[in-house]
Fold each of these.
Amino acid sequence: MEPKCGKVYLLGAGPGDPELMTLKGRKALEVAEVVLFDRLLSPKILDWASDEAEKIDVGKLPGRHKLSQEEINALLVEKALEGKRVVRLKGGDPYVFGRGGEEGLALNNAGVPFEVIPGVTSAISVPGHAGIPITHRGVSTSATIVTGHEEPGKDVNLDWEALAKVGGTLVVLMGVSRLEQNVSVLIKGGRDPKTSAALVEKGWSPEERLVVGCLGNIVQKARDAEVESPAILVVGEVVDLARDLGPRSVAILRPENRAEESVRQAQDLGFRPLIAPVIGFKRLDLPENLAGRIEQAECVVFTSATGVEIAQEDENIASALEKATLATIGPRTEEALRDLGLEVSVVPERFSSSGLAEVLSTEFKQVLLLRSAQGSPELVEKLEAAGVEVDEVLLYDIAPSGDSRLDWLIRKAEPDAFAFTSGSTARYLIERAQELGLEEQMREKLAHAKVAAIGPPTRSELDRLGVRVDVMPERYTFKAMLEELRRN
């Protein structure tokens, strides 16, 4: 009796964003018993595979292979002949410079059934995400897709001088290592050095960058910007459309615990969010009698959603808050309390320290203030001036985030806008740039971008730091700030 043979799925994962994986591809991954995967993948895609599935990293780096292509072919055959469902997971599309055809031929020769599940190819989707359609009526009606580096010893090599004469849009994949040589031959072959050109680095990832120039200067621009692989070169007048079609990028400097909602709000308004947390939170030791102080307070005041999250972690404090009269500085903090099933009695019309102090001083003689150690003294000063007794408890302190995404923002990113949600985010951004020896470059980025401050205290700190503020919303909320940026 012949052994049972499994099946292999040659699956394209698309350009990196998990949401661009096809439904058919996800279903295949969920039932796979073996997954052979490449390096250009989001870890979230692999999470769809079963915990019991055998996962084998066969990823290739330029000039360094974990497994040769022949070894990958043999491994696919071996696992399938063991009767297993095997997924060969690779970035982009298996048949667009993915060597899927070679794997398919090896499987066919071994008598192993296989199926190709297409993926969204980076050749089209990465330029598109950056605002460059590879064809556009009246600009380019054809596109040529080539690889920028070829296997040594090929019998037939690309005729770059012939490509220069083809016209239309030229898309070059995997071309960073040979960028200078390829561009030089295109110009030698007759392509005008003034032809628009762009490099899209790490497309669809949080570190995506667009470097725009022309054939005559794109090599130097790539060198100055320190462009790294993977990057796609696009040559043609369609590159100019990125000015109008590309999404505006906004640097979001809020702490990590606000990242998810920030991304959602920014994307809903058409921005490409660049998450770069500047600050982090350090929980402080809470007084042992805090629950009792909450019960005795006329009103318990929160000034941030983070404070709410920290306070409710203690069961005794959470229980005491259920019976307390609660006040917040704004709607986001109110929402955090309501998510816990707590009713909020006081939210000022003006979401600021002065607006909150004005409302509280008309209704209470004593309040318990739960907030950050870096909170503005204005609220306490105004309450005490109005004769309100303030019992203040510091829940957390603010410290530099140490986040690598912030360093990337300072070193490489060129945001169209910066969204500052506190004075501390502004202060620590400049301090980190100073530590990296890049303060001048950081200030140049701020000078060329739109700068938004969420409210007066943040604006005052930016003014003190010598950073021009272009936008401040009438309602001091993150969403209102983004809406104001979109209008400007």
Amino acid sequence: MKKSREKIIEVAAELFHKMGYHQTSLDKILEESGVTKSNFYYYFRTKEELALTVLDIRIKQFESEVVSGALGESHISPKNRLLKLYDRVIKFHRVLKCKGGCPFGNLAIEMSDVNDKFRERLSQFFTRWEKAIESCVIDGIEKGEFRSDINPGSTAGIILSQLEGAIMMVKTHKTIDSLVKGTQTVLKLLEAA
């Protein structure tokens, strides 16, 4: 049986992803988790503290499973590392049936202009993700797999932006096509002649 803190975090993560931070009330979290208000306040001072905890957990999990789990595998080729990254993102959105979008992108759009705590954590997360992509691109250039006339930093920024934009299209059009086509296009553009 899950402890109250775990139930609160699990329910809050799902609701924040589905409804957004502002649209998710503390009462809704308590109702769906079956936890009392006094029990909630034993673990968290505010809804914001809960949301930041959820964000930190999601970031740690994503970096471990997706970023390091795909881009950090230096024993496979850079192209295959990027493919693995895209495959994991595509799988995530297939499981969600193209609903919800990117939990990080959604939160960045909703909170970056109104709360610096969220903005700073998300900025640091996206920067680390971009740097991991950049390292993969550099490795691909050095191994002759990717074009040598591209700037690795700029290319990493474009790849991350393309991924986040494609996820928005997945959510909007309710089809995985933009992620699949984006994967093919990005890899084709990177290919060494």
Amino acid sequence: MVFILLGPPGVGKGTQASQLIDSFGGEHISTGDLLREACRNQTGLGLKAQKYMNDGDLVPDSLILDLIRDHLGSIDPKAKILFDGFPRTIPQADGLDDVLLNVSRRVDKVVLFEAPEHELIKRLSGRRSCANCGTIFNVYFSPPKIEDECERCGEVLVHRSDDNPDTVRHRLRVYQSQTAQLVEHYSSHSAVLKRVSAMHSVDEVQSAFRAAIGMD
């Protein structure tokens, strides 16, 4: 099974994907996480992508698709896959279809998580990330027990440059102008796209998410 999780930055796609994977297994593919890892390792792709990410812009489709193609080649071909925030453009969606076709797979369900802009800005501006293990906290909703310290590995938490309020607003504008086109794209396949409100507790959203993909 291949699932795509759509929605603006800060809507909670990663949290919901992680909970589902913890319960049912599978592979949670976040291109953002993969890109940040590539940047930390200063790979060729990472160096090219760094400027786009710092400015809150989308990384070019060719770079993203190369990253996805390489990653798919390293995982179990029968594993459940959750694409978190990918694809982000129509060309990426078409490219993903081609990549999946090459490994005899296809997109089974697309879930759109929705929340108003003011809520997204609050969530993102309060986010703190662990550069070591990738765990994410939020000073408003899920703060760490010790301020600025990761509960999992003890490393210092950071406020990512792309999570400051001005960059967040820019990221949301980019989403609306480019990524939101995917809603119409996948809506043309009524049996594929499902909508889930992210304005509830994490557990309530998880229940709605599982129902949407038939895993409740």
Amino acid sequence: MRQICTPQDLKVLAAASAAALIVACVGGWVISETQARIAIPATVQIDPFTMMTGAKQLPTEHVADYSFVF
């Protein structure tokens, strides 16, 4: 009975597959036209002071301090 693939064939197949995957990934990266570098408009700004002073009906935390017990 003859083997279908020898260990040498498997090494060549793995190397060829890895090379094809690398070429496909690099090609996709080069060809892609993403819009990832869009500048954020300057009109959108968050004012932390207004957020802190305008907060209403926030939950309160009740803590019982038992750290100085004899």
